[in-house]
């Protein structure tokens, strides 16, 4: 009898929410476990199976395979690779490039992505950034054709929306990677929109409980998959079995979590838009958002992240909310609030930050699972207390 069942793709054409729960693990094998077991062994008996499937856990691990089967199924893709972090997944993508290759990336990308680009610049890769949410700027940036297009949509923290299908039309056969961390596969499926690789920090919405760091790549191309898998094995960028278990446990509730988080973000965006203490509100669900129409077409819901400019004392605001934890990261069950200038984007030089629109009065919110009325009351009260 196999030790503990098998990682499987659900092959019957079931819908997304059913795949969340049923993909990745076949209960009708082995001991019948209803949860994929946590396989902690680092190495495997050469004669357990003939031919052997497992050699060494840096290369192969059954708990990881169960998670990967699930993540691939969520995007109807052939392959998924789980990584130790979102950053490790991003580094694997950049490992596809060599000296002289050119990357065109969204101008408003995750801070850690900027840091990865800096390392690859030292390796001779040319990285240029452009506002890929603006079709004309995107067209200029993609001529001549680069080796890789790196898209983040929605972006962090301004929630800019890039049209993935539109970029595919502009980019021809150039590899497009979409950092889908902010939307999650529940709200946006980059592969179906024409991207080659979906990148995730599973730390955020996918795992969803702020208790595990993880990353993933999802893709269809077998050759690219082999190269990325080899990179992961050689560099050891693998997640441990317990971390895979946590991500897999978390992802099964993604749809129900994100439905509440989106509802809460909508309620907060509406309250912020009507507050005299607030300037701009950046939320793709608002008709005033420049990416509203593309988001309505490309995403099933406008997401659980929003940002706004505050007309009061930022530090006082952060200190006086009771229900919003002042913390970086996002996508967990608790609501988070942060000021990019003071926290998530602090390492970026101030002039670069300001020219990207990240002003000192910008506040970012990740809506959690609390009652929306409590969140609205708490944030409005904190806005008042920080009034300067
Ligand atoms: C957090 C994050 C990453 C990096 O992921 P880690 O799991 O922290 O390594 C990449 N992209 C985006 C958009 C993120 O929010």
Automatic annotation (TrEMBL):
Q: Which GO terms describe its molecular function?
A: transaminase activity
Superkingdom of source? Bacteria
| Cofactor(s) needed by this chain | pyridoxal 5'-phosphate
InterPro entries assigned: Cys/Met-Metab_PyrdxlP-dep_enz, Cys_met_metab_PP, PyrdxlP-dep_Trfase, PyrdxlP-dep_Trfase_major, PyrdxlP-dep_Trfase_small
Its keywords, alphabetically, are: Aminotransferase, Pyridoxal phosphate, Transferase
Signal peptide range in chain numbering: none
What's one Pfam family here? Cys_Met_Meta_PP
The family line of this record is: Belongs to the trans-sulfuration enzymes family.
Q: Which PANTHER family match?
A: CYSTATHIONINE GAMMA-SYNTHASE, TRANS-SULFURATION ENZYME FAMILY MEMBER
Q: What is this protein called?
A: PLP-dependent aspartate aminotransferase family protein
Q: Which organism is it from?
A: Lentzea miocenica
């Amino acid at each position: 009898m196999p030790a503990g069942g098998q990682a499987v793709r659900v092959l019957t054409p079931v819908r997304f929410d059913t795949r969340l729960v049923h993909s990745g693990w076949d209960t009708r094998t082995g001991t019948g476990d209803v949860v994929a077991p946590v396989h902690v062994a680092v190495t495997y008996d050469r004669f357990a199976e003939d031919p052997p499937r497992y050699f060494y856990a840096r290369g192969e691990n059954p708990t990881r395979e169960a998670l990967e089967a699930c993540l691939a199924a969520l995007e109807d893709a052939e392959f998924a690779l789980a990584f130790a972090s979102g950053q490790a997944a991003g580094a694997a993508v950049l490992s596809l490039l060599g000296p002289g290759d050119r990357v065109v990336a969204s101008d408003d990308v995750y801070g850690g992505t900027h840091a990865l680009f800096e390392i690859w610049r030292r390796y001779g890769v040319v990285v240029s950034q452009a506002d890929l949410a603006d079709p004309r700027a995107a067209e200029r940036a993609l001529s001549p054709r680069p080796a890789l297009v790196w898209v983040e949509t929605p972006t962090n923290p301004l929630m800019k929306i890039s049209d993935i299908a539109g970029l595919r039309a502009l980019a021809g056969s150039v590899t497009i990677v979409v950092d889908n961390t902010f939307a999650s596969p529940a709200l946006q499926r980059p592969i179906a929109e024409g991207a080659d690789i979906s990148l995730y920090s599973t730390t955020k919405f996918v795992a969803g409980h702020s208790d595990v760091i993880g990353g993933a790549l999802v893709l269809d191309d077998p050759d690219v998959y082999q190269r990325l898998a080899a990179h992961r094995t050689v560099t050891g960028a693998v997640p441990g079995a317990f971390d895979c278990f946590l991500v897999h446990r978390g992802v099964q509730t993604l749809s129900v979590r994100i439905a509440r988080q989106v509802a809460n973000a909508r309620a907060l965006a509406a309250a912020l838009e009507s507050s005299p203490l607030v300037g701009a509100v950046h939320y793709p669900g608002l008709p005033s958002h420049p990416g509203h129409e593309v988001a309505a077409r490309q995403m099933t819901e406008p997401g659980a992240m929003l940002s706004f400019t505050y007309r009061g004392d930022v530090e006082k605001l952060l200190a006086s909310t009771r229900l919003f934890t002042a913390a970086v990261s996002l996508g967990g069950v608790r609501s988070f609030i942060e000021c990019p200038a003071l926290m998530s984007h602090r390492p970026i030089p101030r002039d670069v930050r300001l020219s990207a629109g990240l002003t000192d009065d910008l506040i970012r919110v990740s809506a959690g699972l609390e009652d929306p009325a409590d969140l609205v009351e708490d944030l409005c009260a904190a806005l008042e207390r920080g009034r300067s």
